[in-house]
Specification:
alpha/beta, Nucleotidyltransferase, domain 5, globular
Length: 109
């Protein structure tokens, strides 16, 4: 399984479309087998779901995103997990432990 974590520095970005980068993490069961940080492409409506799908991502993790973006991710076979806060490492650890929970969508548009 691969996940894309919206990244601002070492923190989960609060809005997926405006983040500096994505941390792409590949898991084999509960073990991280590969991790890389890739700079986000230029912000264009509808681009990020297609771009992340090319990495083989099955989940996108962020603080929030609007309903249209959620639909675009789902259409690419990517499950959005919103309401996540904290550091990238904390998030990776929670995924590995099977304890990551989404929360309230921080985006209100």
């Amino acid at each position: 399984m691969k996940v894309g974590i919206a990244t601002d520095g070492n923190m989960v970005a609060q809005h997926f479309g405006r983040c500096q980068a994505y941390t792409i993490v590949e898991f084999d069961g509960n073990k991280v087998v590969k991790q890389e940080v890739v700079d986000s492409p230029e912000h264009q409506p509808g681009l990020l779901p297609v771009w992340l799908a090319k990495f083989g991502v099955s989940w996108v993790i962020c603080g929030g995103m609007g309903p249209k973006a959620q639909e675009l991710f789902i259409n690419q076979g990517i499950t959005p997990i919103m309401g996540v806060t904290g550091t990238i490492q904390e998030t990776i650890d929670k995924i590995a432990a099977g304890t990551l929970e989404g929360g309230e969508n921080i985006c209100n548009h």
